[in-house]
Amino acid sequence: MTNPPGETPRVFETTSSARVASAEAALAQLRDPATWHVWQSEIVRAHGPAPLEAGDHVSGDARMLGFKVAGRADVEVAEDGEVRHDVLVGIRMNVRYTIEPDGNGWRLTHRLRAELPRGLSGRVLSFFLKRRLRRMQARLVEDLGRAVAAANADRPPGGS
How far apart are CA 34 and CA 54, in angstroms? Predict the structure, then answer.
């Protein structure tokens, strides 16, 4: 989203986190677009290489606020402790996942920064969009945690 000269973007940011049993299983989910619809309910389908690497592109469809929208994610970082995408799915978002040791497990943190629509209609849409993004994000880390637990249960002992 490009702002007219001198106009500051309207930005919304939110963060949530959850414990996961395996960093390896979490990264496998994050870096495989074919799994995204399992733990991110707004995604209908996503297509891209796996495992994702910096510079890769993912395309797909999502459903948000009752609308079906085509989207894309450009992978900026895909490392052991971080995955970050520049996303365009109706609005531009920067999505960042980090995984850090936390006691006997791992802490998965999801940060979302969105550029909100401008103008009168944009302000109305933003009211609903911010609420939806908060709920989506909280549910996303919980659903990803469940997907990681299920994937980890299928692995032989000794994984991270």
Answer: 17
pLDDT digits (tens, 9 = 90+) for 37-68: 999 888 999 999 999 999 999 999 998 767 88
Band of pLDDT at residue 4, cut at 50, 70 and 90: low
Q: Phi/psi zone of residue 159: left (φ > 0), alpha (ψ -120 to 50 degrees), beta?
A: beta
How far apart (Å, rounded) are the C-alpha atoms in residues 34 and 18?
22
Sign of CA dihedral 37, 42, 46, 50: negative
